[in-house]
Amino acid sequence: MKIKLLTLVFGIIALTACKKRGCTDETAVNFDKKAKKDNGTCVYEVSSYAIPSTYQFNDANGNSTVSFSGQTERLNQLDEMIAYAESGEIGVISAQILKDMFSNSNNPFSFSSTKQLKDKCFSLDVALIESYFDSIAAASQNFGQTAASGQAGTLTSGNSTYLISANGFDYAEMIEKSVMGAVFMYQALNVYLGPDKMNVDNSVPVDPTNGEYYTTMQHHWDEAFGYFGVPVDFPTIPATRFWGKYCQSQNANLGSNNLMMSNFLKGRAAIGEKIYADRDAAIQNIQKTWEDISANQAITYLTAAIGYYGNDNAKYLHGLSEAYAFAFNIRYAPSATRNMTIAEHNALMAAFGTNLWDLSLTDLNAIKASLESKY
User: Fold this and answer.
1) Helix (H) or strand (E) holding 158
2) Cα(135)–Cα(122) distance, rounded to whole angstroms?
3) How many helices (H) and strands (E) does the chain have?
4) Three-state DSSP class for 114?
5) pLDDT tens for residues 205-264?
6) Tens of pLDDT, residues 354-363
7) What is the dihedral of CA 83, 85, 90, 93, to 10 degrees?
8) Dihedral class, residue 236 (left if φ above 0, else alpha if ψ from -120 to 50, else beta)
9) For a 10 Å CB count at each end of the chain, is N or C smaller?
10) Exposure of 206 by Cβ count < 10 A (0-12 exposed, 13-18 middle, 19+ buried)?
11) If we measure between CA atoms, which residue out of 38, 43, 50, 39 comes closest to residue 27?
């Protein structure tokens, strides 16, 4: 009888232990995304200054101090670049046109813009992204053929058709996600929220006579927010593209909507009050959460690809290409806070190989496991 009782007790303990306890409220400062059961330990920050609920900030005279129009232009440029890249599914496209879009040369867009993506791209990856333009243009030469290992062409699943290269990559997805990483993520986390852009003037408006009522520091923070690419009242108004869309995709897993938006709001308000410790804490939270979004989106796509393996090559290679690109984007998280070392990340990307057709289920599960061990 004692043995049975002890077995029952240990069983109850084991079941209880499986449900990690902690703070499950996303609005608390000690929110634990891994906690499954709330233990009543949530702590809520009491701020000494006002933090708005939407990304709207004004000076003492009521003038808006927010500006990130340049970032919005670049998001719009990527929209049109991807629309053109995806037209390779139904016809031949030009690598030069994609390169012109990247550098905003020869008026490639339907709208007027003085900005470009190329000059904001992480310099070491400019050549890589431009090689993707060459690869997708070459694949489009075979848009009417069925893709196979060693043969570029298209694959269809349901109502969706994808242009697949000879080595199994969907380069339309590779281009989109790579620019999201090498331009948007890199600029936001390493440049505009980096020390060089944060250790600047925060006392004098740039040029009120031209409507520039913000300080240099405020403007740099706004530009980082612009690369995140969400509405000013996100997540009440959903995001529809790029990082904002994938932040929503991972929200159930990470609580990322509130983590990203609340820290962007808090940091910007802290700059207005010159409370730089709060600003710096918000920066670290944004950097970490952005990295988590990219890594967990890679895991999501890997899981989907594994499910399609062997029964739907179109969805399999499309999803695996997205997983590759999101995994690659981990490299743009600041090295001081990144979960993966350079060596670990290099090993992760090497595991994908150079031909996605060659990967086995064992390979895919190993890649997924290496990501899950860190995220």
Assistant:
1) none
2) 20
3) 15, 4
4) coil
5) 999 999 999 999 999 999 999 999 999 999 999 999 999 999 999 999 999 999 999 999
6) 999 999 999 9
7) 130
8) alpha
9) N
10) middle
11) 43
